[in-house]
Write a structure and sequence with these properties.
Elements: E1 2-12, H1 24-37, E2 40-44, E3 47-52, H2 55-68, E4 75-85, H3 90-102
Antiparallel strand pairs: 1-3, 1-4, 2-3
Helix pairs in contact: 1-2
């Protein structure tokens, strides 16, 4: 058993794929594709966190995200991984662990 948490952001930097300084139209395409993929994910204001069972599946999410922006001349992306054996459902359990330490629910 393996849990791969991948936190990433991806957005176009080229003018033809932005609406002024806004990239939400393009980011929405990525989130729609991730949502339809069935992978567990959490959207945040600064990026998206997905949880997969393999590194290959995590990397395929990055490829899927890029495919949504493949018409853009330039795309920026930042990725972070947390890979742990013998666990799962860490999108929820990591938050629950902090709440347990605080002995209260947090705003998330």
């Amino acid at each position: 058993m393996l849990s791969v948490l991948l936190e990433f952001s991806m957005f176009p930097t080229s003018d033809e794929c932005r609406d002024g300084s806004s990239v939400s139209a393009q980011v929405s395409k990525i989130i729609d594709a991730i949502d339809k993929s069935g992978v567990s994910y959490q959207l945040t204001p600064m990026g998206t966190v997905v949880e997969t069972d393999t590194m290959k599946e995590a990397l395929s999410i990055i490829e899927l995200a890029y495919e949504q922006l493949s018409d853009c001349e330039r795309v920026y992306s930042s990725l972070k991984f947390d890979i742990r054996k013998n666990t799962k459902n860490r999108l929820k359990t990591k938050i629950a662990s902090v709440e347990k330490a605080l002995n209260r629910k947090i705003n998330h």
